[in-house]
């Protein structure tokens, strides 16, 4: 922090990691690949701007077009330059992140499809209507389809005292 105060934040991809991504993408392009997907645990900072595109009221909800945002984006709090690197690769057109158990949106943002994977199963924190898996179909020409398959897990938690997560947008 500018005033010397220390504050915990989620980490980001650092310049040497971004250079590695760019180099790997260039190698794949030279080998004839036309499309790639980046899969990572933490969402990138650019997910925040993408969420505002789909949910302009400044917080989440449900969108038939995009999916659901039921918690704030848990990313590094500052612009990290990753979106610029991804666009410059002209190869990585999809990013699939996890971490946020109650987000499952898929939003095209500046030419890159930013997606959250579905949380599988109850536990930690969760919502029954958002449980399932994320299916990625890859063909000879790259990513063919990415979609969520939702499943009902209520039978797994009945009578076990496992409660669902409800985000308090007012805190």
Can you describe what's shown?
- There is one protein chain.
- The chain starts with 14 loop residues before the first helix and ends in a 14-residue tail after the last helix.
- It is globular, with a radius of gyration of 17 Å.
- α1 runs parallel beside α3.
- The chain contains four helices and eight strands, in the order αβαββαβββββα.
- It has helices at residues 15-30, 46-54, 82-89, 154-157, and strands at 36-40, 61-63, 67-69, 92-97, 106-109, 112-116, 132-139, 142-150.
- It has a four-stranded mixed β-sheet, covered by helices on one side. Strands 2-3 form a two-stranded antiparallel ribbon.
- It has 171 residues and is of the alpha/beta class.
- The mean pLDDT is 87.
Largest sheet: 4 strands, mixed
Shape: globular
- How far is the N terminus from the C terminus? 23 Å
Helix-and-strand structural type: alpha/beta
Q: Portion of residues in helices? A: 10-25%
How much beta, percentage-wise? 25-35%
Cα Rg: 17 Å
- Low-confidence parts, pLDDT < 50 over ≥5 residues? none
Mean pLDDT across residues: 87
Strand order of the largest sheet: 1-4-6-5
Number of strands: 8
- Number of separate helices: 4
Order of helices and strands: HEHEEHEEEEEH
């Amino acid at each position: 922090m500018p005033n010397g105060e220390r504050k915990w934040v989620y980490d980001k991809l650092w310049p040497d990691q971004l250079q590695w991504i760019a180099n790997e993408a260039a190698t794949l392009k030279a080998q004839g690949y036309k499309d790639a997907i980046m899969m990572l645990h933490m969402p990138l900072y650019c997910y925040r701007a993408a969420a505002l595109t789909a949910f302009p009221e400044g917080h989440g909800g449900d969108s038939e077009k995009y999916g659901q945002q039921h918690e704030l984006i848990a990313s590094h709090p500052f612009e990290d330059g990753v979106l610029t690197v991804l666009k410059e690769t002209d190869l990585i057109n999809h990013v699939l992140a996890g971490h946020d158990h109650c987000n499952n949106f898929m939003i095209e943002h500046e030419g890159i499809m930013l997606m959250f994977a579905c949380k599988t199963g109850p536990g930690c924190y969760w919502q029954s209507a958002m449980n399932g898996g994320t299916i990625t179909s890859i063909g000879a020409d790259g990513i063919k389809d990415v979609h969520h398959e939702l499943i009902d897990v209520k039978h797994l938690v009945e009578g076990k005292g496992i409660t669902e997560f409800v985000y308090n947008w007012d805190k």
